[in-house]
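Hi Y.,

Following your request, here is the sequence exactly as I used it, all 744 residues.
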Amino acid sequence: MTDLGRREVTRADIARLAGVKRPAVTNWERRHQDFPEPVPSSGRSVTDVFRAEEIAAWLGRRTVPANVRRDGELAGTTFGDRFREGLDGGNFRAQEFVHRLLAEADRLRGQLAPADHMLLLLALVYVWGNDPAARASPTSLRTVLRAVLDRDIAGREQVAALAEVFGRQGPGTRAECAAVFDLLVHRYRSEYGRREGGEFFTPKSVARTMARMLTVTKPQPRCIHDPFCRAGEILTAVLTEFAESEVRPRVTGTTPSSDALHLAKMNLALHGAEDAVFQQGLEIEGSGEGDPWPRDIDWIVTNPPFAQRLSISAGQRTWRYGPPGSRGDFAWLQHVVDRLAPGGRAAVVMPEGAGFGGGHARQIRGAMIEDGAVECVVALPPQLFATTGIPVSIWMLTRPESQREEVFFIDGSGLGRMAGPTLRELSESDIAAIVDAYAAWRHGAARTESAPSGAVSVPSRALGLDELRDREHMLAPRSLTVPEASLVGPHISEQAIVLRVERLASAAAGLQALSDDLKRFRSPWREAWPLTANCGPGENLPPGWHQGRLGELAEITVGPGGSRRDKGDDAVRGIPMVRPAAVRGHRILHDGVTWVTGGEAQAMTRYQLRAGDLVMTRTGTLGRCALVTEAEEGWLFGTHLVRIRPSQHLYADYLLGFLERPETQNWISRRARGTAVLSISSKDLYDLPVPLPPVAEQRKIGRVLNTLDEQRQTHTELIAALDVYRAELADLLMSGRVLPPAGE
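Below is the corresponding structure, written out as tokens. Let me know if you'd prefer a different format.
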């Protein structure tokens, strides 16, 4: 699998790899504010370059329309899939293999529970890469799997079926197996992430940030330890940083459960640490007698459970900075500091509240700061974890040798991009911004210069002990990285002025482009429209019109049942599914969808969408409608929606306009039923009376309404651009450094 982290691509590369024409890339960049920004080139080229990782993630949210899909591309294929495939150059693609493997989950799972089936897959990947001899027969493979998991988890027929899939299209090398293992762990985290001690797995981007912050300093550690090891994901991230080193550090860890123990062993072995040693248990329990781990560890990395309730035995332990009370955050922090060797360092994930909580937390936090144990605190954004949206921080700790003069703070709370409906990820450039700020402070470099154009930057600031004492030893980067300053006549550097002028010019250019877009629309009211003849006596419709029931003019299908229909799969992108939140402005917003795997989608072909369909919300906020375009061809629609597929006698744009009329919405509202939540049935929708002009007239009406919808969208983008323009202009004018033009 290609590592996109450090790859760079030009606009021409993006077009070639995504299979589109060059102007399409420029159009994406111009019309979508979330399109990745160019980054400084690592070479000498003056052409803008982009991080391949960010481009792949952005393209992964855009499905290839049915009319431009290539031979062999399935419904739901994204431009991101094409992009990655082009970069892979035809080699084994772990993402594609995992997608196919999970698509056949129902056939291969048998009677196993889904979580056990995922554990079986992880074990099989490990054995496949670590013990090729076991591939000889299903019997030998099953024997090795039983030894790895300490239990008989699958029958011979199931193992044989899986072995056939792996043998036909699976990974061949240990590196390929490691890539597949990482993807399956990510899926396991999303689906079955809550286990003993809370969140089971640490997000990959968080683990990589911790690893790179530790590697800022030398020398290389002799030993690395994780006292709450989970699946070994942070340890593997650290080892990846030493991939080219001849000497590898010793790896140890303690896992909270037997499943975590097996996963950690497999994970580390596939990543080159076959001699890693793990124990099952909870290190902060008891006095430490009989503890197998040394107390002079060079590096410690860990993501302990948040706000864990301590046992009586843990509460009676002697603590370096004071009893932590009943909650375990500051028990883990003290435990980590106690384990470090002189000069040792640690990276620990903490909930944001640990930085400003009172009581025992404030007392221990103050003692740690005064003792010199806290070196740096990094605030991270919310929604990084699968089962909790709370923001977290990374605490960089050291073994105290003398009082520290200052603590460094980095505010990364504004970083990251949404990788799914509820899950955020840090990009390579986000991680680099955090690590660069930390490295500059560690090496004593002043960071007064502005970041290069296109690069990500983060607020950072070092605070001395006196100021931290004044703030009651609070460790909250989001507030501490912003120095207290007067709002009247703030000092702004010349570089900041230049940067804001550039942003103002960019916003102005965006406004001009949107204004040009509006000019291409021909107003449908520019010419007078002739009036029709009056309806005859007793008639309700103009001549040539007639009335029919919606169910006779269109196919009405209610969305699938089941609570899982609104649950996303962020690890393996399959087929997009439209939710009510995505139905806005008579169109489907691509950022408001969720995803289902290919296997689930195959069982839901009845709920596929095609261009010209309408979707309508049928529960809660009733009656919101959207037209399905070619961009949503092959998508699915969810539980709380209804699909309306017009017949050849009913024009879709016309029907959309009719359904959105206030009179029609009132008709739907009056027939809705329910106590807590109102809903409209398909039977009631069947009887909805629809006035029907001739097809030619329907098309004319539909075209007018469709043009207005496009104008509405462009005006929405124009308003957003105006907001940016006004904000930049206000900052410039109120700085006192820029004056309005003469005569204003």
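The chain has 26 helices and 26 strands.

Thanks again,
Q.
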